Amino acid sequence: MTTTPDYPPLAESETVSAPIISGRARTIALICLLSAAFMELMDGTVVNVALRTMETDLGASSTALQWVVAGYPLAYAVGLIVSARLGDRYGRRLLFVTGLAAFGVMSLACGLATGPGQLVAFRVLQGAAAALMVPQVLTNIQVLYRPDERGKAMGMFTSVIGLAAVTGPILGAVITDGDWFGMSWRPIFLINVPLAAIAVAAALSFIPETRDDNPAPITAGSAGLLGASLAAIMLPITLGPDNDWPAWGFAMITIGVAGLAIFARRQVTTAEAGVTPMVPPALFRTRSFTTGLITFAALTIPTGGYFLVQSLHVQMALGWSVLHTGFMWIPFSLAVPVSAGLAATVLAPRLGRRILQIGAAILITGMAAMYLAEGSSNPGLWFPAALVIAGLGFGAIVGSAGLLVLNDVPVALAGAASGVFNTVQALAVAVGAAVIGTAYTTVGESHGLQSGYHVAFLTMMAIVGAGAVLAQTMPKVTTAVSAG
């Protein structure tokens, strides 16, 4: 029996055959990559505030609306790991441009949809297109930047991600309420079309083609098993809260987890046979990646519930309009990129795992302030300050997590690492929205919305605290982390 060869340490693994660019060309390439990441994350949330308008305009049923929301993250999460490995094999720029172009086309199709069935189908295809392009973003950053340069690149990446997370609801509210050009909700999708076209042109001009010299074989059996397992988990998580968590949902989750266990075992046996597997077990021998991934998942779960519960509560309990709710997030959105950029470029290189713990403490403080403000006589007066505090904590976490988790990963494993990282993030956000959202509505229905709000926020603070404790398992610092 043979074993998979050890990959070289990070500093030695930078001798990939890919051309490395610098200066203006690399800056434009990074902007192009970041624009794609921004569009993907924004489109994951932009539809939420427009659902009622879509219902009226398209005559959509509640089931169709659920699929408009759920189809996108489902297709996205299922395809991430396979797409990352396809980029390693066939070219990261090729997969990025293909996914980006398809994303633009599907955005156009969503904006022109004339019925709920069309919109659901196009949203699923839009999520699949996003799955093609997003893994190539982090992989290209790993390849195009040396370890001592990645701090600034990751700082920009995480600042954009943090900003995109709250831009969706704000933009969706402004567009839907403003009825731009008399087109109602449609511009929330159509706005992607020119952005995608510009990004495709820039990518073809400035992003060099790179691929793995020894790519992992992608078999239909392994890819199908992985995709089916992730779908079996994601489907009930996304649809369960609106369907009273049916028994079939728990059965599907069990089947999905079992499928992932079988997939993991097949990856080990493939590696033992001397063949590079789709997800190499060697990846998880990098301590900063494995412990950091677990910590990142724990810290990400509450954020999935945070945006949902806060937005629901101010509308259902306080009577705020959709537009007012969207504007509520502006203080948060301004704080996140400031904190994320500072964390990635200055604090993470110096503090290592401690910046995650500091960010968690600040986020808990912001959530506690929200908890207290909600019970005051004028919560709207205190929410902005609390949201700034929470945004600073959230930014510190997202700004440092990618750098701390991925920086020690050899470039030979960059594609697999990117796929796994993005998949875990998507699953964590979905779990947070489902579990914490269910806690809010269940307690709210039986004991009042304020009680539901309190239970949800106490749960989120407890999970963030657990994530801070888990961060202690990470290495104190990662090798070669630098602000650049």
Structure explained in plain terms:
The protein has 484 residues and is mainly alpha-helical. The chain folds into three domains: 20-211, Up-down Bundle (Growth Hormone, Chain: A); 219-277; 282-475, Growth Hormone, Chain: A. Helix content is 76%, strand content 0%. The chain is built from 17 helices and no strands. Helix 14 runs antiparallel to helix 17 (449-470). It is globular. 57% of the residues are buried. Residues 1-19 and 480-484 have low confidence and may be disordered.
Proportion in helices: over 70%
What is the molecular shape? globular
Multimer state: single chain
CATH class of the largest domain: Mainly Alpha
**Unreliable segments (pLDDT under 50, ≥5 consecutive)?**
1-19, 480-484
Give a brief outline of the structure.
It contains 17 helices and no strands. The protein has 484 residues and is mostly helical.
Outline the secondary-structure elements.
Blueprint: H1 23-45, H2 51-58, H3 62-90, H4 92-112, H5 116-144, H6 150-178, H7 187-190, H8 192-206, H9 220-239, H10 247-272, H11 287-316, H12 322-328, H13 330-351, H14 354-374, H15 379-406, H16 414-447, H17 449-470
